[in-house]
Amino acid sequence: MKKTIPGWDDTRITSSSGNIFVDLGFDEAEAQIMAMRVELMVSIEKHIAAQGWTQAEAAKRLGITQPRVSKLKKGAWDEFSVDMLLTLAARAGLHPELRLAA
Q: What InterPro entries does this protein's entry cite (predicted)?
């Protein structure tokens, strides 16, 4: 007899709100900031990869340590403030912009 875990055969689909952090139950304001941090981190990581920089070279160019670059590449979003990520993006040669939508 095959054992199953209750709920694993649940095939209900829930539509996304467009922000995974809201879907996970975070407060709307906090979820927006978390999504912004992730977007910045992904953009910086993609730029580092596109430039072909090693972690050591990225650290030198960004003005941070190699372990911090490693955390950035691993997506440790809770290790970086939005301010720091904006600074790193600018140091990387990106041109971050903040846009407010009503």
A: Cro/C1-type_HTH (IPR001387), HigA2-like_HTH (IPR039554), Lambda_DNA-bd_dom_sf (IPR010982)
Six token digits for residue 99: 């846009």
* pTM of the entire predicted model: 0.78
Q: What is the pLDDT of residues 68-80, one digit of tens each?
A: 999 999 989 889 9
Tell me if 36 sits within 8 A of 82, measured CB to CB: yes
According to CATH, the topology of domain 20-91 is 434 Repressor (Amino-terminal Domain) (1.10.260)
3-class secondary-structure state, position 60: helix
Measure CA 79 to chain center: 11
Written as one letter, the residue type at 26 is F
Q: In the predicted model, what is the mean pLDDT of residues 85-101?
A: 92
Give the residue ranges of DSSP H helices in the chain.
20-23, 28-51, 55-62, 66-73, 82-91
